[in-house]
Specification:
mainly alpha; about 350 residues
Length: about 350
């Protein structure tokens, strides 16, 4: 039964262009090709990255935050109250006014005391500034290293400058060691982000983050398995080109270096808009939707790839709206408000 399910799942009629079989992608004559089983290595690597991350945050991020003067706000804890705590955990963190009046009567408190309790209780769950700084410092370090590594791997490749060459002689494109290691590292990183998401600072775009991580992991695994590494590498590099700027802006926001934070955010916004709203649709989506069909035709894998890329583009539009809100606030008030994703 498992064998039949596996054969159906990896049916070459679904994933490969017409007249192409998996047998043609087996290693031969000293040439190495990607294999779906290779992606399994990303799981232990993701676990290793989680260990590296917490080690980095403990021995690099935390001392750095103290050295730069990041200080946590002193918060007064809410007094123990079993009834209010039960409501807070089971029914909601922000009771309506009628609920607040009822709880005040049941607990023998005034309305003001009850409101104060819920406000302090919510503040207890808010992540401290040093935790945010450590998380941002780890992401900044990884994104920057990944962007530099990806640039070094792809700089001399023709498809970086001319995306249509992603489809030359596809799928008979041998796997290069540098591209393999960088690709696997990126997959491991996004798996590690998904693993630690429940423990990270919860942001307003939590749902969109989960969708983004799932789509990215599926997209990387799918593109690797089908030897779509050329177009996949362009997508990864394009995203890495702006992500480290956002994390750097957050770091300086947490240290209250406002002018540097605002400058970096404006630079990030320009890079983000250009790469996600201009380059991504005109270079990536165009070549996957239109140029890829010239020699390959259409097949299930073609539609699956473009659906995933379109979901990413919708997320780009969503985050662009958040960025525009911050820029509007910056123009109106003369300074940047806190990151709306925070």
């Amino acid at each position: 039964m498992w064998s039949s399910l596996n054969d159906w799942l990896w049916d070459e009629r679904f994933w490969l262009p017409p007249n192409i079989s998996w047998a043609q992608l087996e290693d031969r004559d000293g040439l190495v090709f990607p294999h779906p089983r290779d992606t399994l290595m990303a799981v232990p690597l993701a676990l290793a990255l989680v260990v590296v991350r917490f080690t980095f945050e403990r021995f690099v991020g935390l001392p750095l935050s103290r050295w730069l003067g990041v200080r946590n706000q002193i918060r007064r804890p809410a007094k123990p109250n079993a009834m209010l705590e039960k409501h807070f955990l089971m029914k909601g963190r922000k009771p309506t006014e009628p609920q607040m009046n009822l709880l005040a009567m049941q607990c023998g408190l005034t309305l003001r005391q009850t409101q104060c309790w819920f406000r302090r209780r919510r503040n207890q769950d808010r992540p401290c500034l040093t935790k945010k700084f450590c998380e941002a410092s780890w992401r900044f370090a990884f994104y920057l290293c990944s962007f530099i590594s990806g640039t070094m791997v792809l700089y001399h490749e023709s498809w970086l400058w001319t995306p249509v060459t992603c489809w030359e002689n596809y799928p008979h494109q041998p796997l290069k060691p540098g591209l393999y290691h960088w690709y696997l590292l990126e997959l491991s990183f996004y798996i590690s982000l998904l693993m630690t998401l429940p423990f990270d600072t919860k942001r307003k775009d939590f749902t969109e983050q989960v969708i983004h991580h799932f789509v990215t992991i599926i997209l990387i695994s799918f593109s690797y398995s089908l030897n779509l590494l050329r177009i996949g590498s362009l997508v990864l590099l394009l995203h890495d080109s702006s992500d480290y700027l956002l994390e750097a802006s957050k770091l300086f926001n947490y240290t209250h270096w406002r002018r540097l934070c605002d400058t970096l955010f404006i630079i990030f916004s320009l890079v983000f808009f250009y790469t996600r709203l201009v380059l991504f649709p005109t270079r990536i989506l165009y070549t996957t939707y239109f140029e890829s069909t010239v020699n390959l035709g259409t097949f299930f894998g073609y539609y699956f790839l473009n659906i995933l890329l379109m979901i990413l583009q919708l997320l780009h539009v969503f985050w662009s709206c958040l960025i525009l809100r911050m820029i509007y606030s910056f123009i109106k008030k003369g300074q940047m408000e806190k990151d709306v994703r925070s």
